[in-house]
């Protein structure tokens, strides 16, 4: 099935375009290599594709499915979690914003990035998630205390993700400032920025709206496990 918009099925769109090199599977179903990301998608709603998706459920962390429409789950899949999220896009930023001293994050920062994400849980973050795109961060006395970066990359779009701040440094505007920088870089590259946030988190949605993001659609985020 062909989505009406690349972001209706962001995982499939990313793995069949700019992030195809990170994909496991075939034309029936694809998933990110589990050391990079949790996400997977079937090509369509057919029984063949759905079964192929189930065969890719090879990680102990399961698989994450992000769909704007209704798609069948793999046979015998166990739903670990399911939530409604809003997908937000930005084609421009609002003026202003806090200025912060930040630095690029790279391979040498990988372990510390994973530790910060594990502590704060901004979303699924694994051993090589930091390689999915460019990340920037704020350090205090040499310690990483806040970061933001990029994740899924369908053609023409880049997802803002991995936004988190150590609990001891919250309330200083770091997350918003880093998001603004990451988003501006995406826009300057000629792409649109997008992100996902739980629909129940109204305060977070309002914050992203102040940056220039708008709600595009609602998606369902489902994490499935292998049957016991």
From TrEMBL:
Q: Where's the N-acetyltransferase domain?
A: 100-228
Q: Which InterPro entries does the annotation name?
A: Acyl_CoA_acyltransferase, GCN5-like_dom, GNAT_dom
Quote the PROSITE patterns the UniProt record gives: GNAT (PS51186)
- Domain of life, per UniProt, equals Bacteria
Name used for this protein in its record: Acetyltransferase
């Amino acid at each position: 099935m062909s989505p009406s918009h690349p972001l209706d099925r962001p995982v499939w769109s990313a793995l069949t375009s700019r992030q195809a090199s990170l994909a496991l599977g075939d034309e029936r179903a694809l998933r990110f290599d589990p050391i990079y990301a949790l996400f997977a998608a079937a090509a369509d709603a057919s029984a063949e594709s759905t079964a192929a998706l189930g065969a890719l459920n090879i990680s102990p962390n399961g698989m994450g499915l992000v769909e704007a429409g209704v798609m069948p789950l793999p046979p015998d899949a166990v739903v670990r979690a399911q939530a409604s999220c809003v997908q937000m896009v930005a084609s421009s930023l609002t003026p202003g914003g806090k200025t912060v001293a930040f630095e690029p994050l790279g391979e040498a920062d990988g372990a510390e990035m994973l530790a910060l994400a594990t502590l704060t849980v901004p979303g699924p973050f694994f051993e090589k998630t930091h390689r999915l795109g460019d990340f920037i961060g704020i350090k205090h006395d040499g310690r990483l205390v806040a970061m933001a970066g990029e994740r899924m990359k369908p053609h023409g779009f880049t997802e803002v993700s991995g936004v988190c701040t150590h609990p001891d440094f919250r309330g200083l505007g770091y997350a918003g400032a880093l998001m603004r920088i990451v988003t501006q870089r995406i826009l300057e590259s000629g792409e649109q920025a997008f992100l996902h946030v739980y629909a129940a988190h109204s305060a977070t949605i309002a914050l992203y709206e102040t940056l220039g993001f708008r709600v595009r659609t609602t998606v369902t985020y489902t994490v499935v496990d292998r049957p016991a």
